Amino acid sequence: MENRFLLRYPEKEQFNQYWYSDRTLKALVDEADELFSQGFTRIACLSTPSLYFSMTEKSRENSYLFDIDRAFQRDKGFVYYDFNFPENLGPALEKTFDAIVVDPPFITRDVWEKYARAVKFLLKDGGRIIVSSIDENAQMLNELLNIEKQVFQPSIPHLVYQYSFFTNYNSPRFQEKNPEIPDDY
């Protein structure tokens, strides 16, 4: 059965939205559940509505979606977020999240610097980070967030580039190859 989020929400070109495949979403949801079981119970989804709305009820209970698309604003966990203004997040959210998942609409250094500021503002010390970007950004992402490329690569069916996941921790799930991705990537 296909993911309900994928059926309900079409990608919006004006927001540069590209959704993960059903299988990639399942891997991310399973990772969120694993983090939750390890005590990382408050998760911030920055520009990742497909993950947020696919998470289990338990994992989503104390989690938030930070996004610019107001189509999601009826959800109690929605926080309007324009990545151009990370300083607008508000002091009540500072250092309150155990884990953060980020998939920006753009992959330039300028955009990543803004997302890195938001991550550092929101994340508790010792928190977990998962981001999605192109391999060419690996050195920059390590410099900005101290994260490393993982083996598992997300499938994003309507995106022309192949992305990878980068994390600041070891995840057995992300050490396995995604069978959706051809061997030549």
UniProtKB/TrEMBL annotation:
Keyword vocabulary terms for this entry: Cytoplasm, Methyltransferase, Transferase
Main location: cytoplasm
Any Gene Ontology CC annotation: cytoplasm
Cell location: Cytoplasm
One GO MF term: protein-lysine N-methyltransferase activity
Record's keyword annotation contains Methyltransferase: yes
Entry-linked Pfam families: N6-adenineMlase (PF10237)
GO biological process assignments: methylation
Methyltransferase among keywords: yes
Domain of life, per lineage: Eukaryota
PANTHER family hit by this protein: EEF1A LYSINE METHYLTRANSFERASE 1, NUCLEIC ACID BINDING PROTEIN
Full protein name: N6-adenine methyltransferase
Native source organism of the sequence: Blepharisma stoltei
Lineage: Eukaryota, Sar, Alveolata, Ciliophora, Postciliodesmatophora
